[in-house]
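Pipeline run #58 for the internal structure catalog. This entry was flagged by the ingest filter as a single-chain record with no existing model, so it goes straight to prediction. Upstream metadata was stripped on purpose; only the residue string is passed forward. Reviewer on rotation: M.T. Logging verbosity set to normal.
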Amino acid sequence: MNRTGAVFTAATFIAVVCVGGVLIAIGQNPLTRLDTGVFDYTVAHRDMTAMHAVSVFSGFFSPVVVSAFTAIAAVVLVIVDRTLVRAATIVGAVAVGGALCEVLKLLVARPRPPYVGQLVHETGMSYPSGHVSGATSLLIALALTVFHGVAARRVAICFAVILAVVVAASRVYLQLHWTSDVVAALLVGTAAAVGVHQFFRHFQRQLAEEQGRRTPDVGLIHARRRSPRAVAARRRLRGVA
């Protein structure tokens, strides 16, 4: 995907999430039937053993753990690259995704699903999911930044998307978020990762072009030094000619 297409996709995702947030805030959520239907289904088919296992899995993608993984990835990239660009892309994607998520939570102020005996009772705002947004930002940013080959990057992106969707499903299964919460979070996380990645790619290209303009053409310099006129001039200066 080219830069224009990537930026347009990220902007579209954010616009969709914002429109959805406005509709939810004014009580016109178009996904109400889906939200309540999925919630009722998970409650009716609850399995406590499975919920404990899913809760452990979900914990690996909590905001604290995602922040730790982000820091580790950034340090490794700085050591390997000896530059901050890729590390800044990872950190920036997670930070932007988290900031967008928190702002939307405050503006929409959507309550969590009702407490019906969940393993964990969370009381923060629900739209969008911070777990899912953070995990999606990190996973997709890693896929876009770490892998360079076209085939390898496509495989990595597919794996990142699948894992992010599984994380989203786990939050719904645990009855901690509505389905529309995690869908919005997937869009926010993807938009943050794609947008920040494109920003740093553009920055890196601009930096390379600037360095290219400042770096003298060594071959041209040597050619000029070897020209007969240049050789004669140096001899005159030395008193040979």
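catalog note: The mean pLDDT is 87.
catalog note: Residues 3-214 form one domain.
status: ready for reviewer M.T.
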